[in-house]
Each structure stands twice: as C-alpha cells, then as structure tokens.
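User: Please run a holo structure prediction.
Assistant: Happy to. Please share the sequence and the ligand.
User: Here you go; the ligand is adenosine-5'-triphosphate.
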Amino acid sequence: QEDLFKNVVSHAKEYGFIFPSSEIYDGLSAVYDYAQNGAELKKNIREYWWKSMVQMHENIVGIDSAIFMHPTTWKASGHVDAFNDPLIDNKDSKKRYRADVLIEDYAEKINQKAQKEIEKARTRFGEAFNEQEFITTNTRVVEYLAKKKEILERMARSLETENLADVKALIEELEIADPETGSKNWTDVRQFNLMFGTKLGAEAATAMDLYLRPETAQGIFVNFLNVQKTGRMKIPFGIAQTGKAFRNEIVARQFIFRMREFEQMEMQFFVRPGEEMQYYEYWKETRLKWHLSLGLGRENYRFHDHEKLAHYANAASDIEFNFPFGFKELEGIHSRTDFDLKAHEQHSGKKLQYFDTEENRNYTPYVVETSVGLDRMFLAVFSNSLKEETLEDGSVRTVLKLPSVLAPTKAAVLPLVKKDGLPDVARAIIEDLKWDFNVAYDEKDAVGRRYRRQDALGTPFCITVDHQTLEDQTVTIRHRDTMAQDRVKISDLRGIINEEVSI
Ligand code: ATP
C-alpha cells in the first residue's frame, strides 16, 4: 500500500498531473499545482459533479461567490471562535500533531489488533467461524474494542468541553498502555485557529482584517435570500457552488489529501423545519450513488456516522473512501439545522426567512449540506485507477484506468509512420473530432511505445492511421483497458468515442 502511494505521487508528477507548488524554490508545504493533464482531470470531475447536482436537478441552482467575505461572516458562522484544531508537540521528536488525529490513530491501532485476533480465529475455525459471536465472547477482542470505544468517547467529551489537559492525559495513558510506542515527552495541548488572515485596504490604520474563506458554504448562506427571490425558488431547493477554500492545517501531509489551499464542491439544501432528517437520508444515499456511478468499486466506500457533532449540526455522516493509506473522509453530509441562517440574521440584523405559500407562514429554513473535496476526489479517482498489469508476454504495462468520462484526453490519433501522407490524414481526423472531444496527436516513437504512453495518461482510445486508411477510409481503434483493436470507418469514430465517454 505504501508503494502504491509512492507510485501515485511519482506518476502524477512524471505524467504532468500534479507538481509541487513553486518547485524551483523547493516547493511550499502542502500546496500543489495541477499540471496540463491534472487540470483537465480536475475540471472533468468538477463538471461531472456540477452536471449531476445542478443540471440534473430542477430545484438546485449554482452560484460562484467571492473568496473574500465581510469579516462578520466568520464571527456569525462560529469560525472565529470555534474553527480550531487541538495542537500538541512532541518535545523529543520535535514533531507536531493534531491531538484528535493522534488519539484516533491510536484507537485505529487497537482496532487493528482486534482484527488480527479475529483473522487468526477465522483461519483456526474455518467454516464454523462466527464473527459476531467471537467479537462478543472472546475476552481479548472484547477488551480491545471496549478500550477503543472508551477512548473515543472520552476524547469527544474532553474536546467538546475544551478540557485540553484531559486530552493530553489520554494521549499519555495510551502510550503507557502501548509498550511499542512508550511514553513520550509532550507539550500541553492548545487550540489553533485554522483560518488564514489577510488585510483589505492600503493604510495600516484603516485596513480591515479579512479571512480567506475556510469553506465555500458561507457564500451560499449570505446569498440565500438573493437567490431565493431572484430565482423564485420554492422550498425544498438547493444552492451549489465549487471553489477554493483555505485552511492553515497543522499537519498537512498525504499529498493532495490535506492541503492548505484546496477546492470544495458544496451544496446547501434548504428544507422545512422538521423535514431535515428525511432529506439528510436522501442526500446520503444520492451522494453515495454518485460516487458509485464512477465504477471504482462498492467495497471502497463506507459511511461513517458521527457521534461527535460540530456546533451547527444535528446529524452528520462522512462518505469514506479506501485511499492508498486506508479509509478516510472524502465527503461530508451534514444536517446543519437553521444555525447558519439564524446566526447571520442576528449578526446582520437582516431577516433571512422564507415565506412558505403552502403553509402560509414565515420561517427560517433548515439546511442539509453535501460537501466534497475536489482534490480528494482527484486523489480517490487517480489512485484507484493506477494499475500495473503483467501481460501475456511477461512485460508489465502501467495503465491509468480512469473512468472514461473523466479522462483528460479522450483519444490520441497516431499516424503509423511520419510519411506517405499519413500525418495529414491523422491531422484531418483531429480537426474533425476536436469540436467534441479533447484529442491528442502523437507521431514520435514506435506505435507500441505511443500506446503505452497514452495508457499511462488514461486516454481511453488510440486511433491509428496506416496505409490501408488511404485506400478504404478505415482506421484501427485500440481500447485502453482491453487493448483490443478494431478496424472501423473514420466516419464512425465520433459515435464510438461518444458512447464510451458520455455520462
Ligand atoms: P478533515 O476531518 O479531513 O479535516 P473536515 O471534516 O474538516 O475534514 P469539512 O469541513 O467537512 O472537512 O470539509 C468538507 C470536505 O472538504 C471534506 O470532506 C474534504 O473532502 C474537503 N477538505 C477539507 N479540508 C481539506 C484539506 N485541507 N485539503 C483538501 N480537502 C479538504
């Protein structure tokens, strides 16, 4: 798994998907640039999301609000006071951690130990093994799991009550209990606000302190009435947007999984108070279906329902994906109640209510939010698609089996040789296809090498022009995943590609 992750990072760089930011100056921690192929893949994911959320839903519209917002926005939303992560340093190793992540990592270790016991027993008992019975009766497993539950519950309580001394004590307790890690030398736990500050205005004395938005959602909330009125939207309805968000993450690692500048795709769905749970369930299911439609495998997704809720939520669940480093959050579905609209109403003094003509009354709508990281989607799709295949002749090919709808380039057109007029025919095919698809031209190296290059870029089709093409207007079309080749008419290419790459 570690190897796979290393391959993902190096493949992304070598094939022009992702570069470290300002690399000539040795990069900038947890900031990345999308390169020529990465930008296409990212754009295609964004469009795939936008189409399914906005274009396909009559009652959802999309906006594009500014990154800069009035500073009171972040006071109202709770971000100034509560958008903190608990920070702890290890004095020996000089490493910095998020205390909650550290505790979760330990809890995961306990879980893994329990899993090992279960697997051992499964091999021992074979067919007769009953996992459920084993989990509830085997004392070691019961102990491990009870410990995990207890730690997480105590952590949730301590974090909620901001009892940071207890959080530190929990970490120490766990380390003492686990002889492999041993006790270490920790600093106190302290809260660290994740928002980036900046200034608006030239004069230091009059300049206004601003924040770079840490989520796109607030741009939707403050525009709620503007959109509802001008779009004559009737509840239930949604407002969607994609855009950059910024967080000064304490521990930014795992490539584009956790970045300081990243992109979100969010949708706020406004509903009648009391009806939020039914829409929460609806969006959980609908968003999972969206992920599954990409064909990365049902087994790679799971829900994680939150026990500990953010200050604005009455229910929350993550869709987790099996990344190269294990199951981690990909998307959050949150029932945010009327917290945000009420808070903005209070802080702005402007009414943010909806008049329900069916019920003939005013109220503050409840909100169900779906929030997915575009960069995390990119990592999920990219890492899951990268395969090394051993072919019949024993050679190994690297192929990026991207969902065709997301592939940066849909087809590469390759003249078999650089003479006899074949490049001209290839160019003519491109001139025709480029109106509908991103297509590439490649004439360098032997055709086999060119196929491999396109495999590594995730291009679903290679179209080869040879001497027979000059006689009968047919070409060879090669399929990335099966490597099967068919002889087809040039005039049929558009239809064949379209069938494969359209949603
Ligand atoms: P995490 O627990 O991983 O920090 P979060 O619960 O803070 O994430 P949300 O505030 O719910 O995340 O944001 C919604 C989505 O935005 C997440 O599911 C994730 O896909 C994405 N996201 C959040 N923080 C980052 C980041 N630093 N880098 C990349 N994507 C992020």
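Residues 409-501 form a domain with the Rossmann fold fold (CATH 3.40.50.800).
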